[in-house]
Write a structure and sequence with these properties.
Layout lengths: L1 H23 L12 E5 H15 L3 E5 L15 H5 L4 E3 L4 H13 L3 E5 L10 H9 L1 H4 L9 E5 L15 H5 L5 E3 L4 H13 L4 E5 L7 E5 L15 E4 L4 E5 L3 H13 L5 E5 L2 E3 L3 H11 L2 E4 L8 H10 L12 E3 L20 H12 L3
Parallel strand pairs: 2-3, 2-4, 4-5, 5-7, 6-7, 10-11, 10-13, 13-14
Antiparallel strand pairs: 1-8, 6-12, 9-11
Helix pairs in contact: 2-8, 4-5, 9-12
Length: 367
Amino acid sequence: MVLSCTLLGKLKFTASKANGLLKAFPLASFSTTSQRSAQVMVRDALNSAMDEEMEKDERVFLLGEEVAMYDGAYKVSRGLWKKYGDKRVIDTPITEIGFAGIAVGAALAGLRPVCEFMTFNFSMQAIDHIINSAAKTFYMSAGKINVPIVFRGPNGAASGVAAQHSQCFAAWYANCPGLKVISPYSSEDCRGLLKSAIRDPDPVVFLENELMYGVPFEVSDEVMSKDFVLPIGKAKIEKVGQHITLIAHSKAVGTCLDAAKELSASGIECEVINLRTIRPLDEQCILESVMKTHHLVTVEQGWPQCGIGSEICARVIESPAFDYLDAPVVRVTGADVPMPYTKSLEPLTIPLSQDVVMAVKKVLNVQ
């Protein structure tokens, strides 16, 4: 009897509380179509993109080192082997030249392989297949043979892995006609662009970042839709500003946003452009921003010589936007040295937010 009375009291209290909430927030004020947001890590965004494309098209398959039973070195392919089996998620020996060649051959035969390199540093073992076989075949066949393949994996500097695991290949692969080169920053970038890359009829080099895999980003319901894709070749303005343009890709976008936040406190509003795609480059977005702000700083973790920043500078100089510049362009890049292993030296080789702040103040000639 005591239990029944207690339960009845709780029910009355709950009903009273609910009525109070309804009076304070009438049902009419709640929208069933509003965009909600959720936290999604980069690795999960990549995983869901591959999962949905494999489910949608049985020609899509994944191969690489430890991608199957181990769920991937960075857990990007977690659960895919259990769902799709040995025929569509394939563990390979540690021989990039071998499995990249198999992947290109499969693409030539009409399949849509996703070829994962455990690190893009060792894509150099397979660069002959990527460039001479995948990138050039469409042109050399007079447009008769497509090579729908995605080469993906972590690119650039990680942490404590020294020179042979810390190169950025954005400039290397962007130099080659026949390839599309993508360098995403956020979970939205990774999900939308990987789906587009897998559907693309041409070879795509998809440069992820190892240090970003565990970073969560807010994404909307639209981004998590199975129909969500992002166009290859379109940049995104991450922050609108009027005093100076900051252009970056991959992890360096976050560096620019941190610098922009600090500079905003001093009254300097930076426009931050996330390139998303390195080839083709969204030249229109770049030029329009420069013509608005009259100042430009490029930021990248790669080496300075023949880098992405160098290409952007050349495009601006050769365009009408050059006449709008009120100061020379400044590039902020990685140091022109192989990555040191020493923990105290490593941060000195990669652009930090304070380096971007200094570059902006130099361009604007402020203290």
